[in-house]
């Protein structure tokens, strides 16, 4: 009988135990789900982020449009209008208090005109300009979308900054030498557009070798986002690197193939880069890697009047040309020839499908890895000569060209020479481009326009910068 009495109690205890376990599990599940919901709602975020979530405010749209800067610009315009309104109302009250003086003292028309210009028209004009400068994001369309192209433009008020950072479309919408439809100038907003690429470039293993991603860094440069310096990863070199040839050999000899990392090129050696190979991987400066052809440039007479000889240009300023810049695309042949005349030339270069930078350096010359949209890393009035060929041609936007030419003028010393070598454009655009070069009022030493094709022309010129003494 005792055993029979204990059995129901034991069974009830087991049921109660299992019920407690089930209820405890439910409590744990509910608690975890509640924590997840609180976390997703932002309760564990910093105070500012939490407030932003619950108030519905966002500093930026997902595509980078700066809504805060837009709000600041609108607020600035409203403040100007409010200030003008208060000033006019105060003036009206003063006139109301002095009615007797108004009848006795009549102001002249000149005073009335001056008052309108300074106190009314001026502030209204400034508010009007500020209002017109505001860029709203356009939802429809991609090509002209402000949200996509100029995410931070409302941050700036100065018109020159806004013109500089606005992307420059190519002439006729064609693809330029960079492989792009537009040029983004180098300022922080471009990195917002190419956030994914910049993050990929800066994602590397600290304490190891850097990834072989120079082409990613160059793509960032071309698109106006200068790649950031990286720390604690070591740059890779060719596994079989050989010492360069002596300077008396290297100027006019193809370098050793083992001194170049070929992994990001279509070709795997210098012989493959021949102009006869249609799959060489680059389209500009055809024949640049063929030394026998390069030896003829700027030293042998040509049938084209637009081709100038180095000896003729140096004779314009005998003994004065010592240092200069070759702004174009090539393998450093112009610098090699000028070296023979004891002139040091820095050559700009981009590796657009071929190892142009490595080639210039292995010849014993100085490559400067930079793009059109970067400020020249030289101080004012320092260069004796600037030479340009094969890079900045009729595809370029006139506003972008204006920024470039004025930067060249900045670094060119008084009496220095600007050598425009075989600049080409369409005939209908020739007057516009000629004005771009003539606006500086340089002295003309040479100026030749010749036909390139039925619809295109060449322009070659040697111009001297005036003293501009102040």
From TrEMBL:
The keyword Endoplasmic reticulum does not apply. The chain crosses the membrane at residues 12-36. It is a single-pass membrane protein; Single-pass type II membrane protein. One of its GO terms (molecular function) is methyltransferase activity. Keywords: Coiled coil, Glycoprotein, Membrane, Methyltransferase, Signal-anchor, Transferase, Transmembrane, Transmembrane helix. One of its GO terms (biological process) is methylation. InterPro entries: Prob_Methyltransferase (IPR053223), Put_SAM_MeTrfase (IPR004159), SAM-dependent_MTases_sf (IPR029063). This is Uncharacterized protein. PANTHER family: F22F7.17 PROTEIN, S-ADENOSYL-L-METHIONINE-DEPENDENT METHYLTRANSFERASE SUPERFAMILY PROTEIN-RELATED. One of its GO terms (cellular component) is endomembrane system. The lineage of its organism: Eukaryota, Viridiplantae, Streptophyta, Embryophyta, Tracheophyta. It is found in: Endomembrane system; Membrane. Residues 67-105 form a coiled coil. Belongs to the methyltransferase superfamily.
């Amino acid at each position: 009988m005792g055993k029979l009495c204990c059995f129901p109690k034991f069974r009830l205890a087991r049921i109660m135990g299992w019920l407690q376990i089930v209820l405890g599990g439910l409590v744990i599940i509910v608690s975890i789900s509640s924590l997840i919901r609180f976390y997703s709602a932002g309760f564990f975020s910093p105070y500012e982020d939490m407030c932003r979530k619950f108030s519905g405010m966002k500093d930026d749209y997902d595509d980078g449009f700066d809504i805060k800067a837009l709000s600041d610009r609108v607020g600035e315009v409203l403040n100007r209008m409010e200030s003008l309104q208060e000033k006019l109302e105060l003036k009206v009250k003063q006139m109301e208090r002095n009615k007797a003086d108004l009848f006795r003292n009549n102001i002249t028309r000149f005073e009335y005109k001056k008052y309108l210009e300074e106190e009314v028209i001026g502030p209204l004009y400034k508010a009007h300009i500020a209002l017109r400068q505001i860029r709203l994001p356009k939802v429809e369309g991609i090509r002209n979308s402000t949200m996509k192209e100029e995410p931070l433009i409302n941050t700036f008020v100065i018109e020159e900054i806004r013109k500089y950072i606005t992307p420059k479309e190519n002439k006729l919408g064609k693809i330029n030498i960079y492989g792009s439809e537009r040029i983004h100038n180098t300022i922080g907003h471009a990195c917002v557009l190419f956030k994914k690429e910049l993050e990929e470039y800066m994602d590397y293993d600290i304490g190891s070798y850097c990834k072989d991603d120079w082409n990613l860094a160059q793509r960032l440069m071309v698109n106006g986002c200068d790649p950031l310096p990286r720390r604690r990863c070591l740059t890779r070199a060719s596994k079989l690197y050989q010492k360069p040839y002596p300077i008396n050999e290297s100027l006019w000899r193809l370098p050793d193939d083992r001194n170049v990392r070929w992994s990001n090129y279509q070709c795997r050696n210098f012989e493959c880069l021949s102009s006869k190979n249609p799959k060489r991987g680059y389209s500009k400066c055809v024949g640049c890697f063929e030394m026998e052809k390069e030896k003829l440039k700027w030293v042998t007479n040509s049938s084209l009047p637009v081709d100038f000889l180095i000896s003729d240009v140096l004779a314009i300023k005998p003994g004065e040309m010592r240092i200069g810049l070759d702004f174009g695309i090539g393998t450093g042949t112009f610098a090699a020839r000028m070296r023979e005349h004891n002139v040091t030339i820095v050559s700009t270069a981009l590796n657009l499908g071929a190892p142009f930078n490595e080639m210039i350096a292995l010849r014993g010359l100085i490559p400067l890895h930079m793009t059109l949209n970067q400020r020249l890393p030289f101080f004012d009035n320092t260069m004796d000569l600037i030479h340009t060929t094969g890079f900045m041609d009729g595809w370029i936007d006139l506003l972008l060209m204006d920024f470039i030419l004025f930067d060249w003028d900045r670094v060119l010393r008084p009496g220095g020479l600007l050598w425009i070598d075989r600049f080409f454009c369409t005939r209908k655009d020739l007057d516009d481009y000629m004005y771009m070069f003539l606006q500086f009022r340089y002295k003309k030493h040479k100026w030749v326009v010749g036909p390139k094709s039925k619809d295109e022309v060449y322009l070659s010129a040697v111009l001297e910068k005036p003293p501009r003494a102040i």
